[in-house]
Amino acid sequence: MLSAPLTASANWPRPHYGGSRMADILTIIAAVEWMALGLLVLWKLKGWNRKMEELYEDMKKQWEAEHETS
Question: I want to staple 4 with a disulfide (CB 3.0 to 4.6 A). Which of 8, 31, 53, 66 is the partner?
Answer without folding.
Answer: 8
